[in-house]
Amino acid sequence: MGEYYLDKIAAYLRDNSRLSFTGHKRTTLRSRLETRIAELKFSTFADYWGYLNSHDSETARLFDLVTTNETSFFRNRAQFSFFGEHIIPRFVQMPAVDKGTIRVLCAGCSTGEEPYSIAMTILESLCVPDSMKIEIVAGDLSRGCLKEAEAGFYETGRLKNLPKGYIDSYLEKTGDGAFVRKEVKELVRFVHLNLNDLMNPHSTDSRDQLGRFDIIFCRNVMIYFSSSCQQMLVETLHQMLFTGGYLFTGDAEPLHLFRHEFIPVEDADCLIYQKTEMSANARTSR
Ligand SMILES: C[S@@+](CC[C@H](N)C(=O)[O-])C[C@H]1O[C@@H](n2cnc3c(N)ncnc32)[C@H](O)[C@@H]1O
User: Fold this and answer.
1) What is the pLDDT of residue 285?
2) Fewest CB atoms less than 10 Å from the CB: which of 119, 178, 182, 222?
3) Measured from the CB, is residue 106 less than 6 Å from ligand 1?
4) Phi and psi for 263 in degrees, rounded to 5?
């Protein structure tokens, strides 16, 4: 099928989502598009390009189709252990003036396992859950993923990484899986999020709407962007954190590959970074 139109679709994805389909990822893009083209009973990428340009709703369908949504509960357990044992207690011990709300952004939350793991970790870590207001904003480009995340139902096979006792404490079992309980769901607000909008230096609207965060999880997302977009994303996430806030990245996303102003959290045996005092965006400036 025509390479010219495949190039055009790849450029459209890059410009609208920052997803990069060069090298071996182009093969993935090709095969996923071929499935959609067959479904629509078209035969060429040119047919699909025409369809994409004349049907607004197809963009969301395309995002669902081309994103890689692999995830699991408590993926990279070491990060969650450090988060619950060391980071949440730091917020609890803060002087009363700064205390009150912990705002967490989970950017690229896929089908919800990650934000629900964050919520369960916070609930486990707080002796008195009502002592802090918790707000976890979880966003993803894929509307299909967000729908699943909001439903909060997971088949038995997807529950295997939950720490011992968590299924009984935080989920409601059914025949073939379990629903996340209300007290966990209540902590998470799912939103449609396109990191491309946050990274646009000329439009700060999307960033302003979300506000600033104490903690950002952005794991296994930037690997799908080009290296220049990864650099921009690191800078954007830095701006979106309060000073003293923490960034969690994926195993394949160490920040030493970029120019950045974070410091690695030294006593953590995993990728966690802290925004230092260097910038003026103090936590108290909410
Ligand atoms: C491999 S999953 C990672 C899920 C989770 N963060 C984890 O580590 O388990 C990557 C997710 O990033 C989302 N994503 C990709 N590009 C995005 C963008 N431009 N804006 C927001 N989310 C995006 C995808 O839809 C997908 O659900």
Assistant:
1) 40
2) 182
3) no
4) -115, 140
Ligand 1 in contact with 220 (CB < 6 A)? yes
Q: Does residue 68 have its Cβ closer than 6 Å to ligand 1?
A: yes
User: Three-class SS string for 1-31?
Assistant: CCHHHHHHHHHHHHHHHCECCCCCHHHHHHH
Give me 92's structure tokens: 């609890």
Tell me the average pLDDT across 123-132.
Answer: 83
pLDDT single digits (tens) 16-28: 999 999 999 999 9
Give this prediction's pTM.
0.94
Compute the distance between CA of residue 21 and CA of residue 232 in angstroms, rounded to an integer: 18
Superfamily of domain 77-285 in CATH is Vaccinia Virus protein VP39 (3.40.50.150)
Cβ–ligand 1 distance for 267 under 6 Å, the answer no
CA of residue 110 to ligand 1 center, whole Å: 6
CATH code: domain 3-66 is 1.10.155
Give the Cα separation of 152 and 111 in Å (integer).
8
What does the pLDDT read at residue 99? 61
Is residue 141 in contact with ligand 1, taking CB distance under 6 Å? yes
Over residues 139-160, the mean pLDDT reads 98
Q: Where are the domains of the chain?
A: 3-66, 77-285
State which ligand 1 atom lies nearest to the alpha carbon of 18: 19
